[in-house]
Amino acid sequence: MARVLTPRAEDFPRWYQDLIAKAKLADNGPVRGTMVIRPAGYAIWERMQAEMDARIKAAGAENAYFPLFIPESYLKREAQHVEGFSPELAVVTHGGGKPLAEPIVVRPTSETVIGEFMAKWIDSYRDLPLLLNQWANVVRWELRPRIFLRTSEFLWQEGHTAHATREDARAYARRILHEAYEDLMVNVIGIPVVVGLKTARERFAGATATYTCEGMMGDGKALQLGTSHELGQNFAKAFDISYSSKEGGREHAWTTSWGTSTRMLGGLIMAHGDDNGLRVPPRLAPIQAYVMVVKDGDGVGEAAAKLRDGLRDAGVRVALDDRTDTPFGRRAVDAELRGYPVRVEVGPRDLAAGNAVVVRRTDGSKSPTPVADVVGAVLAALETDQQVLHDQALANRESRTVEVATLAEAIEAAANGWARVPWSAVGVSGEAEANGQGVTVRCLLRADGSVPDSEDEPDLVAILARAY
């Protein structure tokens, strides 16, 4: 196949940009830091969105929608929150040709505006828990934009909940972390993630605890794919989110927030892509099987359409490419770039022998297959290759993760991958030193790999890496 992309080993960032452009996933918007998500990219986002939405609803949350514009005074009510977001805010000072009485912030996240309405809607313990989610866009003024990874405007879901007790809030934040986020990332997107606790330095502004899902990309760097936060009573006190308890007293609620975004698309590209383009895990792929007419005539078009229908009837998301006025080689390159899990190529010579060719995107293998067996072969390939992509990503992570004993060794190891080091060997001062060299503590784990409640627990393990 002709080289269309810069090889990953030669220049990984250039490969990433090449792939996004050549696969027609997205483009830069007219305002610096914004992006246009093209149909091929948006189709993948829609699949992510549908899978995530189902998991969020299974956890009991309901979708709502809150305003894009937030009074600046709302953000100022929670001191840590406004301090954390101030450098990233886009502020509207004029509307309708006149100065506004109060500046309006374009939402960077919605804790404050949703907190205002939680306070209005919650009166009694019977109103709890209140479990809300919204699908929206947010704006964070980004100095170093990169499509899907860091853009000034991006798409996401943000969940916000209120609970009667700290224990209930913590349990729910972790339920979302594992049952929605980790499950989607591992079992659908095929990215094995390390799930852990963020340090105080990396914690969400205004949170009491932040839990994260960290994935390793193809170049050994880390990408934060989703976070879930315990907010304690910080926002409840700032916005007076309170309720009458069973005992008749007035108590402040305990709140959480959690989010994932179009950054997952960047993770998909960098975790699974190869030098020929994107590789989309079958469970996620908008098009799982791509039936291609190599050359028309001799009943090829009819046979291809029949295969498409048979695959669709078997529950496969399928598309037919019968554009024989476009050279087949070019169409095959485009299919590789888009990462369709399986191609079914139908041409006169193969069809004369009673076959079609099944091509698997994971390894490029081509198998002449009797037409009657194509549907079964495609279903088997889809099942197998979902696991193949996960296992390859896991092997990459394991081969590039090293156990070290000191901060210096961890910083050195982070040049090529991840380091696992005792948190006691890093600490707050060591974390600052690592940050000065472009290395961050991605998360903290217990020795058995489970998620700690606090960074003060004994014998914790820190994951250090360079990150996007």
From TrEMBL:
Domain named Aminoacyl-transfer RNA synthetases class-II family profile: residues: 32-281
Entries under SMART domains matching the protein: ProRS-C_1
PANTHER family: PROLINE--TRNA LIGASE, CHLOROPLASTIC_MITOCHONDRIAL, PROLYL-TRNA SYNTHETASE
Matching NCBIfam families: proS_fam_I
Any one GO molecular function term: proline-tRNA ligase activity
Top-level class of the enzyme under EC nomenclature: ligase
Record carries keyword Amino-acid biosynthesis: no
Official protein name in the record: Proline--tRNA ligase
Family designation: Belongs to the class-II aminoacyl-tRNA synthetase family. ProS type 3 subfamily.
Protein's cellular compartments: Cytoplasm
Function: Catalyzes the attachment of proline to tRNA(Pro) in a two-step reaction: proline is first activated by ATP to form Pro-AMP and then transferred to the acceptor end of tRNA(Pro).
Domain of life: Bacteria
Keywords for this protein: Aminoacyl-tRNA synthetase, ATP-binding, Cytoplasm, Ligase, Nucleotide-binding, Protein biosynthesis
Known partners and oligomeric status: Homodimer.
EC numbers, comma separated: 6.1.1.15
Written domain comment of the UniProt record: Consists of three domains: the N-terminal catalytic domain, the anticodon-binding domain and the C-terminal extension.
Chemical reaction(s) catalysed: tRNA(Pro) + L-proline + ATP = L-prolyl-tRNA(Pro) + AMP + diphosphate
PROSITE patterns in alphabetical order: AA_TRNA_LIGASE_II
Main location: cytoplasm
Keyword Protein biosynthesis among record annotations: yes
